[in-house]
TrEMBL record:
Peptidase S1 domain location: 410-655
Alphabetic keyword roster: Disulfide bond, Hydrolase, Leucine-rich repeat, Protease, Repeat, Secreted, Serine protease, Signal, Zymogen
Keyword Signal belongs to the record: yes
Pfam families reported for this sequence: LRR_8, Trypsin
Chief subcellular location: secreted
UniProt xrefs under InterPro entries: Leu-rich_rpt, Leu-rich_rpt_typical-subtyp, LRFN, LRR_dom_sf, Peptidase_S1_PA, Peptidase_S1_PA_chymotrypsin, Peptidase_S1A, Trypsin_dom
Alphabetical list of SMART domains matching this protein: LRR_SD22, LRR_TYP, Tryp_SPc
Organism: Chironomus riparius
High-level lineage: Eukaryota, Metazoa, Ecdysozoa, Arthropoda, Hexapoda
UniProt keyword annotation of Transit peptide present: no
Protein name in UniProt: Peptidase S1 domain-containing protein
Family: Belongs to the peptidase S1 family. CLIP subfamily.
Localization terms from the record: Secreted
PROSITE patterns: LRR, TRYPSIN_DOM, TRYPSIN_HIS
């Protein structure tokens, strides 16, 4: 994403300093969502003034019928950002009044129509956000004067198609989101001008087929989502032009078979998700051109066998195969031997139902138990024959961040298996009531969020005697389960700079010191503490008991997993300026902003990243905006405490009793 220019943002009434640029704030109100908002640069070049117009409700109602007569109180030429969530019609008056607009955001509104010439005067427009409205039809040439546009979001509307020339002049567009509409058809040359496009989201529509012509000019595309449609077939060499594609999601469709040349040309693809289709066989060499493939997910299809020939030429980086919930009763014995890098192999809920996530030698041992005709190589036999319980990590071991069991559907999925993330903890009250998550980082220390111990606007903190740390926990509704061990807390250490009365969730971190040392086993193991090498990793995993959107429960009983992008504060605020209020220099953002994210019950849990096969704690679930039917605004990013900023503080907390 392009670097953020702060003058395009509307901030809350706080002082924020980035790159030595101050933002002085005029009057603001928490009811900002119901009002017209504009941002402008002042005449003093050293300062950027962020302005939020909070007129009375009748002012807002008049704006539904834009008449161009409302006074903003400053020069129209200085307005760079404009937004409203009450408009029903978007007319040309807006761009006539504010010709230098950079960002137009009309979201979560009643917008159902757009005038053909409404954007003709906004020649400098960079971001256009009109998602979550009721738009049924797009004027074909509405963007003819907006060639500088880099981001276009039209998701969650009622579109059934997109006009052939709608994107004809968008040669600078980088991010296009059309998900969650009712699109049944797209013209073959609809994307012909989008040579710079990197992200294309077409999921959750009604597409029945894929047209290879869509992708002919998308040489820079990196992410493509086609999941949640009604696609029944992938044409030959469909994606051949997408030589820079890194991630491809086609799950939750109706695909019955694959062709050997379906993925030709995708030499940079590292993630391929084909879950929840009806695929019954994998042709020989079907993945042969995927030289960079790291993870493949084929869960919940109709596969009966897996041939090693299907994975020729993918051996350099290939680490993960997920084929759970199929009909597999046989595996080519050469599969594991030929793919030397394979580490994750998930076959849960098949005819031969065991979960495979071991080291390569342990993995082959499990295969021998399941398939009698499999014989591992002789040189590995002495290592394989060792009973697994002898390989559990001792309490004095320096090993961390390793999982002893499978990880379930990690590619685009949500469920996990018992022990797959053995460092997750549940903080419960003596009554057994769950209240927060945590992460085991040593044989005595558990990290969690400070607000789990002492919430905002309170003066009383939870004491050690009021907390029980459940390690090895998997199912909260059970009082006893295999692998679970409760630990009492000796000391509670909330960061001394945690301020319950200030608005930003700064210093939202706490360390619980357990009263006895933990004995590690395959269900209980510590995660690695972060180092500077992992800061550059831009994708993490959150595992927690947070509530799902389709339930009224306060939290889930079984932990769920979410793969989430990691964002800088700059990108975070550009996505949603309200997050400034929750952030600091010791936080970062994570999320997709597409209706999937952390929720109640996830607080205090960890965001982890994988580096070289080991998992490291990158952040702690801290805060998010309130919204949605269950109090979680998962259409925006969430804020995480940056653990890398607290290493010395964590190490300085003593576990000595004397």
């Amino acid at each position: 994403m392009k670097e953020m220019n702060l003058k395009y943002f509307i901030f809350y009434s706080i002082f924020w300093s980035i790159n030595q640029t101050k933002c002085q704030v005029a009057k603001c109100d928490y009811s900002y969502q119901n009002y017209w908002s504009t941002g402008y640069k002042t005449t003093n070049t050293s300062y950027y003034t962020c302005y939020l117009d909070t007129r009375q409700a009748n002012y807002n109602e008049k704006l539904i019928q834009i008449d161009g007569k409302h006074e903003i109180g400053h020069s129209d030429d200085d307005v760079k950002w404009i937004g409203n969530n009450k408009l029903k019609t978007f007319s040309s008056i807006i761009c006539q009044k504010f010709p230098n607009l950079k960002v137009v955001q009309i979201t979560d509104a009643e917008l159902d129509s757009i005038e053909e010439d409404s954007l003709f005067n906004c020649n400098n427009l960079d971001h256009l956000l009109m998602h979550k409205n009721k738009i049924r039809e797009l004027p074909e040439y509405i963007l003819i004067k907006n060639s500088k546009l880099t981001l276009l979001r039209l998701y969650s509307n009622q579109l059934t198609t997109v006009p052939e020339n709608f994107l004809l002049y968008q040669k600078n567009l980088e991010d296009l989101d059309l998900n969650d509409n009712q699109i049944e058809f797209l013209p073959g040359n609809i994307f012909r001008s989008l040579q710079k496009l990197e992200l294309l989201y077409l999921y959750k529509n009604k597409l029945r087929s894929i047209n290879p012509e869509w992708f002919v000019n998308l040489q820079n595309l990196k992410w493509l989502r086609l999941d949640g449609n009604q696609i029944s077939d992938i044409p030959s060499k469909c994606f051949a032009a997408l030589r820079n594609l890194e991630k491809l999601w086609i799950y939750e469709n109706r695909i019955k078979s694959l062709k050997s040349d379906n993925f030709d040309g995708l030499q940079n693809l590292n993630i391929l998700n084909l879950n929840d289709n009806e695929i019954f066989d994998l042709p020989v060499d079907v993945f042969a051109s995927l030289k960079s493939l790291d993870g493949l997910s084929l869960n919940n299809n109709k596969l009966t066998t897996i041939h090693s020939d299907s994975f020729k030429s993918v051996h350099n980086k290939f680490t993960s195969i997920y084929v759970g919930d199929n009909l597999i009763n046989a595996i080519d014995e050469k599969l594991i031997d030929d793919i030397s890098t394979l580490f994750h192999f998930n076959m849960t809920n098949n005819i031969c139902s065991q979960l495979y996530l071991k080291t390569r030698n342990q993995l082959k041992s499990m295969l021998k138990e399941c398939f009698n005709n499999y014989q591992p190589r002789h040189q590995h036999q002495s290592q394989i024959s060792r009973p697994f319980h002898h390989q559990l990590i001792a309490s004095t071991s320096n090993i961390c961040g390793r999982s002893s069991t499978g990880q379930g559907n990690i590619i685009g999925g949500s469920t996990i298996s018992r022990g797959s993330f053995p460092w997750i903890t549940a903080l419960v009250k003596p009554t057994g009531d769950f209240f927060c998550g945590g992460t085991l980082v040593s044989n005595r220390k558990v990290l969690t969020a400070a607000h789990c111990i002492q919430d905002k606007h309170t003066t009383t903190a939870t004491t050690a005697s009021e907390i029980i740390v459940q390690l090895g926990v998997y199912d909260l509704k059970r009082t006893i389960e295999i692998g679970r061990i409760p630990y009492a807390v000796e000391t509670v250490n909330v960061h001394s700079s945690w301020n319950t009365l200030s608005e930003p969730y700064d210093y939202d971190i706490a360390v619980l010191v357990l009263d006895t040392e933990v004995t590690f086993n395959k269900f209980i193991q510590p995660i690695c503490m972060p180092n500077l090498n992992i800061v550059s990793i831009k994708t993490g995993i959150v595992v927690g008991f947070g509530k799902s959107e389709d339930t009224t429960k306060v939290h889930e009983n079984i932990p769920k997993m979410l793969e989430t992008p990691i964002h800088s504060n700059e990108d975070c605020f550009f996505h949603e300026y309200r997050l400034v209020k929750l952030s600091s220099k010791r936080t970062f953002c994570g999320g997709t902003g597409t209706g999937i994210g952390v929720c109640r019950g996830d607080s205090g849990g960890g965001l982890i990243v994988n580096d070289g096969g080991a998992y490291y704690l990158r952040g702690i679930v801290s805060s998010s905006l309130i919204g949605g039917p269950h109090g979680c605004d998962v259409d925006t990013y969430s804020v995480y405490t940056d653990v890398t900023k607290y290493i010395d503080w964590i190490n300085g907390i003593s576990t000595s009793r004397f």
